[in-house]
Amino acid sequence: MNNCFKLSLLIFFYLFVNDSQAQEIRWFGESPEMMQALEGRGWEDIGFNRLPDSAEKLVRPPVWNLSRQTAGLTLRFTTDSPEIQVSYTPTSSRLEMPHMPATGVSGVDLYVKDGSGKLLWVKGNYKFGEKVTYQFQLNNETGMQKEFHLFLPLYNGLSGLEIGVPADKNFEFSPKRIEKPLLVYGTSIAQGACASRPGMAWTNIVAREMNMPMINLAFSGNGRMEKEMIEYVSQIDPAIFILDCLPNLGPGAGFSSEEIKEKIRYAVITLRAKYPNTPILLTEHAGYSDGLVYEPRAEIYENLNVWLKESFGHLSGKGVTGIYTLTKEEVGLGTDDFVDDTHPTDLGMSKYASAYAKKLKEILE
User: How many other CB atoms are there within 10 angstroms of residue 111's CB atom?
Assistant: First the structure.
């Protein structure tokens, strides 16, 4: 064996060993530390869910089933690694919808905090199947500990969540923030339809903009201001209650104008009785994409918004204070801001978020 061949073998062996060591991944799975770091839940010990077990027999089955989806749940952690891997099993085989991609329905989103405290999106290479995997890479030559926020799927649940980093890198789940969260009770739009990825749901954009935890109790097609759900909403003590349910109270739901107004009044009075000083924000219907070209569609959201204004006036007249409205005009959606007739694109989500953030800063700061 000549010396050149020996040298080649040594170089190959050296590169192979070092590459194998570099690829060794240390995984951090579901554990007390992970669950203690999980933000976006109104109750402890409910796993990757949005309602406690006691709700199963009290709320309608669609609400219960939707509460098993992870919209609004976020994990915070720190690491000095330039590579982060994520793996989990979706609880539903429906990974995508006709009007919403798998990255939004069943994917995750990773953000890293920069030196100024701003959260920046980190691109991930992903594979979807019975198991979903993501691989994220970013520059971290200095080996600094950086803070990350991992936003979980909007329209799917998950199990077996694991986060992996190279074995020689540090990793630690961050303590859950103790400040009061924002809380939204709403419809498919607030749950996240039809954001292209979890970070683009308006609720998650607002959480980043306000630098506050967000509890998402929005249930697609089922945000109907039912007494049972108001009871569960009232078990949480947030910085503000956001009630954005009008899109699910239209003609298809079968409610009269008086029933809708009574729902609004009941929700506000119930929350105000338990939390005398917590602001309550009532959101108008932001409109339909075809409302400008088909009058019957416009009449739906126009009537709903009139009834909300009348309810607001009634409550104010009864001496209820600390209630606010976010109007359709303030949200400001146009015909190009929708995927279909109802659900916003990422552009529409951005407009929602800007309107909400401006209003919330006016109320809370």
Answer: 20
Q: What is the mean pLDDT of the chain?
A: 94
Supply the angle between the helices 295-317 and 257-274 in degrees, to the nearest 10: 40
Give the span between the Cα atoms of 207 and 204, in whole angstroms.
5
Percent of the chain with pLDDT over 70: 94
Closest CA to 349 of 195, 220, 246: 195
DSSP code at position 38: E
Same domain, 193 and 122: no
Do 165 and 188 fall within a single domain?
A: no
pTM of the entire predicted model: 0.93
12 lies in some domain: no
Q: In whole angstroms, give the CA distance from residue 279 to residue 341.
A: 31
- The strand pair at 119-122 and 109-113 is best described as antiparallel
Give CA–CA dist 324/228, Å, rounded.
23
Peptide bond into 194 cis (omega under 30): yes
Q: Total domain count for the chain? A: 2
Sheet strand arrangement including 132-137:
25-28, 158-166, 83-90, 132-137, 124-127
Q: Is residue 347 in some structural domain?
A: yes
352 three-class SS: helix
Q: What angle separates helix 346-364 from helix 202-210, to the nearest 10 degrees?
A: 40
Residue 113: how many CB atoms within 10 A of its CB? 17
